[in-house]
Amino acid sequence: MPDSPTSELTAEARRAFFDDGVDPRGLVPDGIRDSWLRCRRLGLEAGHRPGAGPAAHPTLREAQERYETLRRICRPELEALHAAADRAHSIVILTAPDGFILDALGNPAFLDKAARVALRPGAPWGESVTGTNAIGTALVERRPLEVKGAEHYYRAHQILSCSATPLFGPRGEVLGALDLSSEASVHHTFALYMVQHAAEQIEERLFEREFEAADILRIGVDPEALETTRAGLLVVRGQRVEAANRRALQLLGIDRKHLGADSRWDALFRTALPPPSQIGEATSVNGGHFHVQRGISARPRIAYRVAARPAPKPGHAPQAMFTATVDARIDRAARLLDADIPILLQGETGVGKEITAREIYRRSTRSSATFVPINCAALPAALIESELFGYQPGAFTGARREGAKGLLREADGGTLFLDEIGDMPVELQTRLLRVLQEREVTPVGGGRSFPVDFRVISATHQDVADLAATGRFRADLYYRIAQSVIHLPALRDYEDRPTAVARLWDTLGGPQSGLHLAPELVARLTALPWPGNLRQLAGVLRSLMALGQAGATLTCADLPPELQTTTAPDPVPSPSRSGDLRTIEQQAIDAATRDCHGNVAAAARQLGISRSTIYRRLAEQAAQR
Question: Which of 106, 344, 502, 613 could form an S-S bond across to 482 if both were Cys, CB 3.0 to 4.6 Å?
Answer without folding.
Answer: 344
